[in-house]
# Entry
Amino acid sequence: MARRVLKFLTAVTYSVADLITTETAWRDHLGFRTVDSGTIADELSEAWGAPASARQPYCLMQPESGAEVYLRFVETGEPYPFGPPGHFGWCATEFLVRDPDALARRLEHSPFRRIAGPGDLFPRPRAPRAMQVLGPGDEIVYFTRILPGGSQYGMKGAQSDVDRPFIVPVGGPSLEAMQAFYCDTLGLRRLEPLAFINPIIAQTCGAPPSTIIPTAIAPLPGRRFLLEMDELPPTAVRRPRRDGHLPPGMAMVSFLTDDLDTFEAEFRSTPAPLQGAPYDGRRVAVITGPAGEWLELIEDKSARADG
# Structure
């Protein structure tokens, strides 16, 4: 088995058209607090291999629980509307919540628009219960409750009304290619694929609601995070990206890794130490996955394979 490269999910980065609108909505309606803000430093944009992102406004937000799993919003001025044709890459962010039904009532008349749920994900006792919404920048967000003993992956529930990201779905043209990358190359555990009807993915891609989406889960070490891989319908296309910029929409997911020197992949830029949250002087590098998705790797020598 390949060395486990991805140890811990530490941040999700979104490109948004309007930073103030997005930050205000996540603060006022979901309880996230801003822990850092400013403009993207030249050193960071160079590490990303995205020089055009330098000096773009950003904020880094943390859930009310205090979990060190962040949301970062970068104002690119580029809208990324929900809907067809659907693009390869990071698709959505799934958060732990205590009560999706109460949250649905709380989000009425807010910038968050409900597109499905709340509803149980499986017809069994203690099943996860979820709601799907669009955020102020049309970001696809899932809010999921996990009861004690209700997760087949041993996941624990929320520690605040709206807690941290815990699942990141990526969509691409080939499930096998994604499993080869994340499991065989990056060392996550390979599980058998499943066939799901996912109306939201189908709607995004302009496919019939009954379209079957081949899906596979890859757990990260420590029973805290899952990576979901979805084979998108043939109507989906590669995500457009302006030269030198971050990808639009859900731009990047950041993971801790224990050693960049032994990592066998092509970096977008030479690994370099960066200051400020969530880096704290650690080395950083970015790689591109098989669906065009960006993974930011933060080197942490203390990160252990067992989480």
Q: What stands out?
A: Residues 19-30 form the longest helix (12 residues). The chain has five helices and 17 strands. The CA atoms of residues 148 and 224 lie 14 Å apart. The chain has one domain: 8-299.
